[in-house]
Automatic annotation (TrEMBL):
It catalyses: (2E)-octenoyl-CoA + NADPH + H(+) = octanoyl-CoA + NADP(+); (2E)-tetradecenoyl-CoA + NADPH + H(+) = tetradecanoyl-CoA + NADP(+); (2E)-hexenoyl-CoA + NADPH + H(+) = hexanoyl-CoA + NADP(+); a (2E)-enoyl-CoA + NADPH + H(+) = a 2,3-saturated acyl-CoA + NADP(+). It is an enzyme of class 1 (oxidoreductase). One of its GO terms (cellular component) is peroxisome. Interacts with PEX5, probably required to target it into peroxisomes. The keyword Mitochondrion does not apply. Keywords: Fatty acid biosynthesis, Fatty acid metabolism, Lipid biosynthesis, Lipid metabolism, NADP, Oxidoreductase, Peroxisome, Phosphoprotein. This is Peroxisomal trans-2-enoyl-CoA reductase. It comes from Plakobranchus ocellatus.
Length: 314
């Protein structure tokens, strides 16, 4: 098997897994990327595909154990396939300004550059908006919106402003509002808007900024565990026009496209990766039973106020 052809092997848990890419081998050779949340789920898939394409990858998130097990899986794969690409692990909470500054500066000092930033790290908890405490609201907004802002700003100021680069942010299916995820929907809508702003402001520095918006349908065990229900994705596929859930690889390939020279005239854009879900309905929220709400019409006003009150206005 050639070094860069697709490969299949069994990892230490004896679960078979394969890695391949629709992009040409060596596409990202000599490039350096940071993937936040790169130890799990979608971020891990992005990290793997970038490595497969020859990129040096720094994965960063809060929890050392998650990073370590993700890195071990990726390194096992690198060893089995004979890939030469470099994986680096750094701990960073994207809500912490000093940690973000240090993540970027360490990467630039170690590898001499930063070509790609993938702001994948993020998340939320499920709650009616009326029951979200301020601390919980702030935690989600700081993670998804402020964290993305800090990462973008530092990547730009410390490197990309003078050398160019590509940034890909992460949104979600918040296009029609986000029942039970109001905090995250608001934050991700902010990310979509920030992406447009930065696409304009930083174009002159040869920095492209885009975003991907997966539906509530990208199957990842760590994502499911976050909701305390490993079956949380069951049943969602049937409600999606494409009649299935999505894969982490389907997000990764869109990210790789946006990073590639093939997307060199695309900036400020958000690509939906949701099998048409957001154009159809929001399947994760069922309306509670209730009577119809009050309707407004001139007749209903007239009826409510009574003929005398209405006449007095004439
Ligand atoms: C739609 C239908 C289904 C559909 C479900 C289908 C979903 C599929 C789509 C998937 C979408 C995804 O994004 S999948 C990605 C999932 N992965 C993640 O979300 C991982 C990252 N998330 C997190 O770490 C957390 O959710 C996040 C809140 C952001 C950060 O937590 P931290 O503990 O670090 O935050 P802290 O600063 O300590 O603050 C925690 C406060 O947050 C609040 N809080 C935290 N968890 C809470 C909870 N479960 N319930 C209430 N409140 C909570 C409390 O107020 C906490 O304070 P106290 O009161 O003091 O405790
Ligand atoms: N799966 C899906 O269907 C969808 C996912 N998304 C988004 O895609 C991204 C990846 O999700 P997915 O892989 O599915 O789920 P995961 O729960 O596996 O990934 C979330 C990742 O974000 C990291 N992270 C969370 N908070 C922080 C923080 N403050 N600083 C640094 N890293 C952080 C986590 O690592 P650690 O805990 O170590 O910090 C983890 O690796 C998230 O932003 C998610 O919200 C959006 C729409 C749908």
């Amino acid at each position: 098997m050639s070094q860069r052809s697709s490969s299949t092997f069994e990892n230490e848990c004896q679960k078979p897994f394969a890695l391949s890419s629709v992009f040409r081998p060596g596409l990202f050779e000599g490039r350096v990327a940071i993937v936040t949340g790169g130890g799990t789920g979608i971020g891990k898939a992005i990290a793997k595909e970038l490595l497969f394409l020859g990129c040096t990858v720094v994965i960063a998130s809060r929890k050392k154990d998650r990073l370590a097990s993700g890195a071990e899986e990726i390194r096992t794969w690198l060893t089995h396939t004979g890939q030469q690409a470099t994986l680096h692990v750094l701990q960073c909470n994207i809500r912490n300004e000093e940690e973000v500054k240090s993540l970027i500066s360490t990467t630039v000092l170690t590898y001499g550059k930063l070509d790609f930033l993938i702001n994948n790290g993020g998340g939320q908890f499920i709650s009616n908006t009326a029951e979200i405490r301020l601390k919980g609201w702030n935690a989600v907004v700081e993670t998804n919106l402020t964290g993305t802002f800090l990462m973008c700003r530092e990547a730009y100021n410390q490197w990309m402003k003078h050398h160019g680069g590509v940034i890909v942010n992460m949104a979600m299916d918040m296009w029609k509002g986000s029942p039970l995820m109001g905090h995250s929907g608001a934050a991700r809508a902010g990310v979509v808007n920030l992406t447009k702003t930065l696409g304009v402001e930083w174009a002159q520095s040869n920095v492209r900024v885009n975003c991907v918006a997966p539906g509530s349908s990208i199957v990842s065990p760590t994502a499911a565990a976050n909701y305390g229900d490993l079956n949380v994705f069951d049943g969602i596929g049937a409600t999606i026009p494409m009649k299935r859930t999505g894969t982490v690889e389907e997000v990764s390939s869109a990210v790789c496209f946006l990073l590639s020279p093939g997307a060199s005239f695309i900036t400020g854009e958000t690509i939906r990766i949701d099998g048409g879900q957001s154009f159809y309905t929001t399947p994760t929220y069922s309306l509670p039973d209730s009577k119809p709400t009050d309707k407004y019409s001139w007749q209903s006003c007239f009826d409510a106020e009574g003929p005398e009150a209405a006449k007095s206005k004439l």
